[in-house]
Amino acid sequence: MSVSLSGPRRLPSSSLPPARSLPTATEERIISSLRDLQALYCPLRLPATLPKKVRKKGIDIPAAATPIPVDSGYASQDEEEDDDAALEEVTAGIRADPFERSFVTRWLTCLIGRVEEMAFDDDVKGKIVDDAAFILSSFSDSSTTEEEQALTRDFTFSLPARHGGEVKVTLNDAPLSTTDHTDVGLQSWGASIVLSSMMCADPSAFDLAPLGTGATTVLELGAGTGLVSLTLAKLLPAMAIDAHITATDYHPTVLQNCAVNIATNFPSHAADARDMPVATALLDWSSPPPHLRSSVHLLIASDVVYAPEHASWLRDCAAHLLTPEGVFWLMVTVRENGKFEGIPETVEHAFVADKCPRDVAGRRFGILGRQSVEKRRGIGRGDERGYVLYRIGWAGV
């Protein structure tokens, strides 16, 4: 008996187009790869975009996977059944392989991050992102109930008397994925809670004031559950500040959870996602979009540095995004033991003068101020010992 391996029966690590060549891959190759991954990892789930067809130069590409033929020749019915069983056994083995799943997770994440570099129609790009995110979301599926999977948390932050009232935010803290240990943004961490509280208690300390003309552009890096962005979306209107707020992250699953949190906090806007006070967007720090250069007035990030290279990527990305007069508030968590010990030092090292970018006017991008913040009782993980708040921006020559 011979069994031919094709489509979803092939190892993803040996059949998917290399990540470095994704921007130049053909539309047919990308869609075929996604179709094979859907057939392999989520054969019983139908994504919203799957029934649609992609039309390219008069050719319809059906979204459903083409049946994989068995190379049976003149095989009898019994032999065909044996072939089917063998194929299913091979498929199940590939589906359960942790290395292959990890490879696919990285490949899909890279695909989403680089889709704007592809010379495809916007509708095709949207379908690629939707289908890739659909496959990624299937990796975190669980047999447990929704109540067991998530925890709803309510936060209340007091405002100064002149602004009156308080800011209330409701969040869904989803469980961490079992397939990608880096999607820590599915949970709210102490730094984001403390930073949100500080901004509400003293907005002027964070340079929160109306611009002379136009709306303030606010962007959160590594937004996670979106707590800081949602806090600003409720705080700024109370201060009569018109703002465009975007919560960004690198992980599609995290952004999906963030979008749910935005809809939960602004249910009256749910009918039209374009009307939401907070938008979501995927952002790769190592490759920020050219069109966002010098476009952000207020940049926020909390507890987003977990490795030395993160600080360097963050520095260069922030320098790319921030306007000359803008400010970047970075809250870093201090941990005195474990693998994340010494993270604040990596930030300090990344911002030494000779490593910091300079703009065409000769201004240097660097740390303008720092403040130690004490850990608050009942907030954050047990390994957190406090925080360092950095004020970062462009300094004179």
From TrEMBL:
It holds the Pfam family Methyltransf_16. Residues 1-23 have a biased composition (Low complexity). Gene3D superfamilies: Vaccinia Virus protein VP39. InterPro entries: Methyltransf_16, SAM-dependent_MTases_sf. One of its GO terms (molecular function) is S-adenosylmethionine-dependent methyltransferase activity. Residues 1-25 are annotated as: Disordered. PANTHER family: HEPATOCELLULAR CARCINOMA-ASSOCIATED ANTIGEN, S-ADENOSYLMETHIONINE-DEPENDENT METHYLTRANSFERASE OF THE SEVEN BETA-STRAND FAMILY. This is S-adenosyl-L-methionine-dependent methyltransferase. It comes from Dothidotthia symphoricarpi CBS 119687.
